[in-house]
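[Meeting: bench + compute handoff]

Bench side (C.D.) handed over the final construct sequence. Compute side (W.E.) agreed to return the predicted structure before the next meeting so the bench team could plan truncations. Sequence as handed over:
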Amino acid sequence: MRISKLAKVASLALAFGLATGVPAHAADLQGSGASFPALLIDACKAGFANETSHTYVYASSGSGTGRTNSDRSIGDFWFTDAAHTAATRRASIIHVPAVAAPIAILHNLPAKTTLQLSASTIAGIFSGEIKRWNDPAIVADNNRSSTKVVYRLDKNGNVKKDAKGNPSILRTQNVTSRYTLPNQPIKVVYRSDSSGTTENFTNYLNKSAPSIWTKPKAAVFTSSFPGNINDPANLGRIVGAASSNGVSQLAGKTPYSITFAEVNYATANRLKVANLINPAGASVSPDSAGVSAFLAEAAMDSNGIVTFDYATKEKGAYPLGIVSYLLADTKNPDAAKGKAVKELATYILSTKCAKDAGANLGFSVLDGAFLKKAQDLIAKIG
């Protein structure tokens, strides 16, 4: 019997990626899943404990692990950056859109000028069609006139709406860019593990540049790659690394590389952040205002699952904004745990977490209709 109990404890520790020296009672709640919201979740830990007297640990291991752990009831809450629609999802599990932030295009070019890239160019780079930094497509993106939009913002840093419910523009200005691109090969770094970030990124490429990125979205980058990633021409030039931290670290050590991850990984790894050229032709940075404008054009169904409008002509929308879902059980066999998870979801959506702890990390505050629907879903946790 003792051997059986030890095996069970060991398997639980492995499922969360926890060190075996951490006791099982170290926290009230155990969470796992997407790496995308991990920095925010960690930043809000102390405030949540002060407000509720509850504690938690979160193992940042990828959206795929979060979904699998929710299927197996391993832990108390889970995060995924892509909707869990598989047949394995338990009927009592709901999606709460809890965290919003941009996926950033990070690069390791030496120049100080801000790089800007269109969807078709990004698709060309990550598909391996565009191989050098001075490719005509990249040159065209970075030597042009574009519009910069400045929105009126509310106290939470979100875009205000005008009388018609449209994003309220404070001013626009025309910007002419000039960027001399280096004659160097591009090193592409992609996520090698199952990732909701990857699923969102490949969905953006497929919806925004379908003639180049011909395969549908996938949580595994190689499954969506629109060619033969093992082609000899790609070996050593298109390489993978696990987790957002992994791709950012590798790109930071690789001159002339490019990758995709949360914007907050740029500084630590001495990477630069590119602007996106959106469907309206504007050059937009991955910030809270751009994500807010993009989410304003999205739709959310009764299950909390968000559908993005990648073709939106909203001038200041950053079209690579994503939502990370908290997966929670509406029929938790432990009533006290269910109540604590409900309090956690509420806290993460509050300005104390999303704004006070999250603003400097690049996260956005959900508000308006999005917030109301999310709160309605939180009420079902128990």
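W.E. noted at the follow-up: The two ends are 32 Å apart (CA to CA). C.D. will use this when planning the next construct.
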